[in-house]
Write a structure and sequence with these properties.
Strand order of the largest sheet: 6-5-4-7-8
Number of strands: 8
Radius of gyration: 15 Å
Order of helices and strands: HEEEEEEEE
Helix content: under 10%
Structural class: mainly beta
Shape: globular
Length: about 130
């Protein structure tokens, strides 16, 4: 399980509340992920936390065929591109884990899955399903 840190706590609190929370630079307006205390584009430390729409598109994926703790194969390990611009690694749920079902650029929407009292994971499913 992920371990929240002071820099990532806003993200995990947001996930528990059913939100993806990103950071946006107050100086250059760049929206970024993963969380960090400074803007990766201009290095400003003046950043704000903003709520993402929860919409994304499938950027890349691999279908994993081996079991891993908490996962039964096959399952998709994916990179999604959020509507706000940043990309994040996640899993695709709510559809067959096949190349026919997992089409690049397909529209996705976030769903949240509680793992522990502290960790809720944002996962993505095909939009409208």
């Amino acid at each position: 399980m992920p371990e929240p840190t002071p820099e990532t706590l806003h993200f995990w609190v947001g996930a528990r509340a059913g939100e993806i929370r990103l950071q946006r630079c107050d100086q250059c307006r760049h929206v970024y992920f993963p969380p960090r205390p400074f803007c990766p584009k201009c290095a400003s430390r003046k950043v704000s936390v903003v709520r993402a729409s929860g919409r994304a598109k499938l950027y890349s994926y691999v279908i994993h065929q081996r079991p891993a703790p908490g996962f039964a194969p096959p399952y998709a390990i994916a990179v999604v591109e959020l509507d706000e611009g940043p990309r994040m690694m996640t899993n695709i749920v709510g559809c067959p884990q096949t190349p026919d079902a997992l089409q690049l650029d397909m529209p996705l929407e976030v769903v949240f899955e509680k793992q522990t009292d502290a960790i809720t994971l944002p996962l993505f499913k095909p939009a409208g399903k």
